[in-house]
Amino acid sequence: MTAVIDRDLLAIQEMREAVRKAKEAQQRYLSYSQEQVDHIVKAVADAAYAKSYELAVMAVEETGMGVAEHKKIKNEVGSKAVYESIKDEKTVGIVREDTEKKIVEIAAPFGVVAAIIPTTNPTSTAFFKTLIALKTRNAIVVSPHPYAVKCTIEALKVCEKAAVEAGAPEGLIGWLSYASMEATQSLMKHPDVHLILATGGGGLVKAAYSSGKPAYGVGPGNVPVYIEKTANIQKAASMIVDSKSFDYGTICATEQAIIVDKNILSITLQELKKNGAYLLNQEEKIRMEKVISPVPGKVNPKIVGKSPAFIASLAGIDIDDSVRLFVAEETKIGKDVPFSLEKLSPIFALYTAENKDEAKQLCSRLLDLGGRGHSLSIHTEDDKVAREFAVEMPVSRILVNTLSSVGAVGGTTGLAPSMTLGCGSFGGNITSDNITARHLLNIKRMAYGIKEVSIPRKGTYQTSSDLKVNNTDTEQVVKSVIASMGKSGQVDVKEVAELVNKVIEQYSK
């Protein structure tokens, strides 16, 4: 018991020291020019990119999740693609000026950023968060996932070495080497931490939002993919299988359930099989359900990021090396329906829809189960249908005719390359954006006067007490007007006007 307590104390002390160093380094970093910052960021991106495969192998070995070749691609997106997307942004001093409105915008960093890293994408997320922090003159202190401490820290060491050699102050990149939930929570509440970037489980994200600090957190991504009747089915099936099997389904934007129009169901199943999908029969489905969710409503962590062969062995199903993922036809959706959950593994539920309206209902129910605000994928040749889904679905990203997993993080689309995907208010997040450098900046605005305004002095306008009307005078005016009408009932306009002017003159004195 004593050893555990000592370890917790060490973790807290280490965290405090990392934040202290980060704060001091960030204060020095404030004086750096845009050119100096950009030089450091490029050096870090190049070093990270060069170590993409080595760190991918290390991540797979430590976590037991995913595919090294696929994690290499993630690392490349988290380093080179992120760098390319932010390299030309102004993040120091005056960053924008509107000469017409005479407004000048000035960039200011948050300060020290606390970054929570997931076990599913440990090294790529470490690269990504470090780059956007350095680009915006913030310091960063990272809390790795307990199951990915070594590979995450190694990724950070690569970044730190490159940054310091390029002229960055030491301590700008810090980390927690002890796996301690208490230290992580204390980090998020530390008075010298100014922003939290939380990518991980729901508990940690909630802790980030309840820390009292500005925070970017992300929700789950129970992503539906709809194959609409006009889709290029051959191409769609190939993309969906590629996307779902990418790193064994560990990206939160990976498709989790297929919804297919009834009149193309048969050919879709054929194409899925051609691409390596194993269609479970009813008995196999029942066995797989117990593997997916031994406890109702909760996904078995043993299947996350694991190979089809490993999952098949747990379910007692014999497969060969050609199998890339499992598919089971499903009709129900709910916490007690294992195939309808976010599985983060190469396992699909497949639902049949009578038409696009039923497809919308199925997608909405799946998102309500645990993916609101995240992403939705659609394969269609009818752009009107794609836009209809984009307008109506409660998600922040709609991926059309592409791999959802890689497309959502900016790999196959024009979206900002990012390993932290906001879910907007649909998912309880502050933003629906792909988080990038601009989210780590305060923008100050200097505004010149461009409009003239006349400010009246006190007493200029009459008060209600000044405008009280004498009832007797009013009665006299009314009688005079009536008398002027004569027997014909016609009003002498000139005489009435004179009388009204006399009244106005009287009450304006």
TrEMBL record:
<dbReference type="InterPro" id="IPR016162">
    <property type="entry name" value="Ald_DH_N"/>
</dbReference>
<dbReference type="InterPro" id="IPR016161">
    <property type="entry name" value="Ald_DH/histidinol_DH"/>
</dbReference>
<dbReference type="GO" id="GO:0016620">
    <property type="term" value="F:oxidoreductase activity, acting on the aldehyde or oxo group of donors, NAD or NADP as acceptor"/>
</dbReference>
<dbReference type="InterPro" id="IPR016163">
    <property type="entry name" value="Ald_DH_C"/>
</dbReference>
<feature type="domain" description="Aldehyde dehydrogenase">
    <location>
        <begin position="14"/>
        <end position="275"/>
    </location>
</feature>
<dbReference type="InterPro" id="IPR015590">
    <property type="entry name" value="Aldehyde_DH_dom"/>
</dbReference>
<dbReference type="Pfam" id="PF00171">
    <property type="entry name" value="Aldedh"/>
</dbReference>
<protein>
    <recommendedName>
        <fullName>Aldehyde dehydrogenase domain-containing protein</fullName>
    </recommendedName>
</protein>
<keyword id="KW-0560">Oxidoreductase</keyword>
